[in-house]
Amino acid sequence: MSDIRQRSSSRRSTSMSGEETPFTPGAGLSAKAMIDTAPQHHGSVLKLHIPLFYSILPSAIQRILLAWSCFKFLVPSWKERYLVLCGSYLYKFKDRFSDTPKGSPFDIETITIDILKTTGQDRNLSEIGNLPVGYTKIFTVSTLRRRHYYAVSDSEEASLWLRSLREARQESITRNMGHASNVPYPPSWKHFDALGKDLVKSKDRIRERMEMSGIEGMEMAAFTEGQIPRGYYG
Questions:
Q1: I need a surface site. Which of 36, 108, 125, 195 has the fewest CB within 10 A?
Q2: For residues 168 and 108, is the Cβ–Cβ distance under 8 A?
């Protein structure tokens, strides 16, 4: 019963007036709370933000947008972020004082990590110019859906992120296989892992609903125009 009450209470909060409020995705996953538990690694980075609109444009149009300063809001840009590697997830925050993560945390068992040797080896980076002042290296975190780019000050910092993520990934796999590990897994990390798992599920449900809404909207528009969408056999 105590476990049930605990899970239930984690999905609701109480306002100052004493009334219950709906559960907020990411509640309890503040950057400060994680940093205070001595996570595997954390620090400031620059994240390459690539607008969806830009990513679907032909290369020729992308180069035009990059050349005109009035379209800067439509092209890739570097944004400050704070990463925290804690337990089995890598969390992304706006800064180290943020109360909730940005987006869905990365399940480190399902990602691949690498360090880019040169920006010219990647199409997303070769056309946007030099890195901001004070940043010289880029490491990448790849999921099944996309590749994420993070700039850091030097090769040493990039290598530290690479090593920390790979070691944490191996330890997470070892724990989930039920094998003993020499690396401590404190109760606080276990608590954050449970909240992180809930947040991932919540974000996945939202994305699935948005994708289904997009598909249904396209099909409805096609039927309204008297056309059957290509590949539709329903």
A1: 36
A2: yes
